[in-house]
Write a structure and sequence with these properties.
626 residues; alpha/beta; Rossmann fold; 3 domains; eight-stranded antiparallel beta sheet; 26 strands; binds 5-amino-5-deoxy-1-O-phosphono-D-mannitol; transferase; GFAT_N; glutamine amidotransferase
Length: 626
């Protein structure tokens, strides 16, 4: 949801800022803009609706001399207030044209602030909530107790703003200084030698430095080439703590590495993503070994006392949460409810001290999930976050965190993060089972060994890519694709349908196969493609035979059946128009394999239709608005 970058140093700021926007474009691509200070008191701004490429073309035509300077900032937008047009693109300027702002988030009290400005005779030029911030700072700088004080003027305004926001300001009278602040949306400082960066995401500056500082809630920062100073919104440093950290991955992880799209690279990275997520979570001890959740701050005693688990998440993370339910209930006998985070807090769920809430979020910034976490904490529940982004807001506000260690996921569609979340969810299930004694240590060890064997099997599933792509190209022009599964195959069907919807803009729906006869079977007509996720024949035989009957039912009605089944499952062959074979795995672990062909399928259909696989229309990677 909007990518923001600021730079102060010795390099050509325009180059640094545009490169950073390119890496953060996954956060939003409705418009892009830059503001560069040339050191002689001139602020050059360019902004353009659409992809960054449009802005680059505009900059190319304008000639870069106007943008020569070593202080600058940039923005890539996912529109909330105001259509994605040139005039709503950031940066926004004040009337003097000397002050500019870029913003991520929503200023919730923008309406009264806008009225106040209009009554004072300020003409607002955009439909955004953002623009109020720049005019308010401009007025605080022009007159009153903070007159002439850039940083103090920003601080004065920050204290008036409600909502979630990251704001970055630059002023032509103060070259070499950038003032920024955050509440509930991300902002990190990149610490270089003789240069400093601020950005929504470390990918913006990883090329220049791996030393970073994560800002806390309601913190402001001033950067100059020499250093940074973190304060609260009132400018105080006392009791204000920010967290320095070293980024443990490099530029290559944030680049496509020879692939046409990040998503394709990220699909291939899945074996490593799962292996890295499991790394160090099982230690050998005198009893043979045990699961350790090293980033957790929940004692075994607490894990024993929970009488209910809620899993809250959105989108693909929610689908991974549905899988958590199967594993946790099976291993621990503790009831698990899985809820869309956007629904959770509005229906007054029953929560108390003995409830464990597991909040799953790749980005760690999803507003719906963050609000669900806050609601759970207000009700005294304990919250365990599963997150891919070090130090993001959701893990910060949770009691404990398990990090999925996939490196940056840049394609908007979740792939490696999803599989890593499934692995992390299962770790939580095993840790609960171990603490509560519902599984013997040797059983826990066996389950962990199964998990550990998955990366190799995922690599083998990747070998099905040519076959899956061929099927995808054949089906690229159909209007509808249905996905069916039972048991753990059902969340996989939902995930397959979501991938196809978001990437290829096709009507796709996932169903629990048993539900088909209760309505959806009416959709089946001659040639309609139905992708079926078959359970293992060696697992619960009843599941397998029931799904086989469902396939027969739809084939009898003319559907084209594309079946994902375990190698050697010959019983399904006569009913499969296309058969994609995956290695055998115990039932609970099969989703780590069966999801992969569905990701490849969706990406290939999207490519065949000529869509941008990494940046599907209307979407952004991190959804920081409710
Ligand atoms: O960052 P999060 O895991 O909280 O994001 C949740 C969803 O927005 C995300 O999974 C979304 O559904 C993906 N685009 C799916 O591919």
């Amino acid at each position: 949801m909007c990518g923001i970058v600021g730079y102060v140093g010795y390099r050509d700021a325009l180059g640094v800022v545009v490169d950073a926007l390119r890496r953060m474009e996954y956060r939003g691509y409705d418009s892009a803009g830059v503001a560069i200070l040339d050191g002689n008191g001139a602020l050059a701004v360019e902004r353009k609706a659409g992809r960054l490429a449009n802005l680059e073309a505009e900059l190319g035509e304008a000639g870069t001399e106007r943008f020569a300077g070593s202080t600058g900032m940039g923005h890539t937008r996912w529109a909330t207030h105001g259509a994605p047009t040139d005039r709503n693109a950031h940066p926004h300027r004040d009337i003097s044209g000397k002050l500019a702002v870029v913003h991520n988030g929503i200023i919730e009290n923008f309406a009264p602030l806008r009225r106040e400005l209009e009554e004072a005779g300020v003409e607002l030029l955009s439909d955004t909530d953002t623009e109020v911030a720049v005019h308010l700072v401009s007025r605080a700088y022009a007159d009153g107790p903070t007159a002439g004080e850039f940083t103090a003027s920003v601080h004065a305004v920050l204290q008036r703003l409600e909502g979630a926001f990251t704001l970055v300001f630059t002023h032509a009278d103060h070259p070499g200084t950038i003032v920024a602040a955050r509440r509930s949306t991300p902002l990190v400082v990149g610490v270089g030698e003789g240069e400093m960066f601020i950005a929504s995401d470390v990918t913006a500056f990883i090329e220049h430095t791996r030393e970073a500082v994560e800002l806390g809630q309601n913190q402001a920062v001033v950067i100059t080439a020499e250093g940074y100073r973190v304060t609260d919104f009132a400018g105080n440093t006392e009791g204000v703590h920010s967290r320095p950290f070293t980024i443990d991955w490099d530029l290559a992880a944030a680049e496509k590495g020879g692939h046409d799209y990040f998503m394709l690279k990220e699909i291939e990275e899945q074996p490593t993503a799962v292996a890295d997520t499991l790394l160090g979570h099982f230690v050998i001890d005198e009893k043979g070994g045990r699961i350790v959740l090293d980033e957790q701050r929940l004692a075994d005693q607490e894990l024993r006392e929970f009488d209910k688990v809620f899993v809250v998440a959105c989108g693909s993370s929610y689908h991974s949460g549905l899988l958590a339910k199967y594993a946790i209930e099976h291993w621990t006998r503790v009831p698990v409810e899985v809820e869309l985070a956007s629904e959770f807090r509005y229906r007054d769920p029953v929560l108390d001290r003995s409830t464990l809430v597991v909040a799953i979020s790749q980005s760690g910034e999803t507003a719906d999930t963050l609000e669900a976490v806050r609601h759970a904490k207000e009700q005294k529940a304990r919250v365990l976050a599963i997150c891919n982004t070090n130090g993001a807001q959701i893990p910060r506000e949770s009691d404990a965190v398990i990090y999925t260690r996939t490196g940056p996921e840049i394609g908007v569609a979740s792939t490696k993060a999803f599989l890593a979340q499934v692995a992390a969810n299962y770790l939580v299930g095993l840790a609960l089972a171990q603490a509560r004694g519902t599984k013997y240590p040797d059983e826990v060890a066996r389950e962990f060994a199964e998990l550990e064997s998955m990366p190799k099997l995922i690599s083998r599933v990747l070998e099905t890519a040519p076959q899956v792509r061929a099927i995808a190209r054949e089906l690229a022009h159909v209007p509808t694709v249905l996905f069916l599964g039972r048991h753990v195959g059902y969340p996989v069907a939902l995930e397959g349908a979501l991938k196809l919807k978001e990437l290829a803009y096709l009507h796709a729906e996932g169903f629990a196969a048993g539900e088909l006869k209760h309505g959806p079977i009416a959709l089946i007509e001659q040639g309609l493609p139905v992708i079926i996720v078959m359970p293992s024949p060696k697992g619960r035989a009843v599941l397998h035979s029931k799904l086989l009957s469902n396939i027969r039912e739809i084939q009898a009605r003319g559907a084209r059946t594309i079946v994902i089944a375990e190698e050697g499952d010959d019983t399904v062959r006569p009913f499969a128009d296309d058969l994609i074979e995956i290695p055998a795995a115990p039932t609970l672990y099969q989703p780590l394999l069966s999801t992969v062909p569905l990701q490849i399928f969706a990406a290939e259909v999207a490519q065949a239709l000529g869509y941008d696989v990494d940046k599907p229309r209307n979407l952004a990677k991190s959804v920081t608005v409710e």
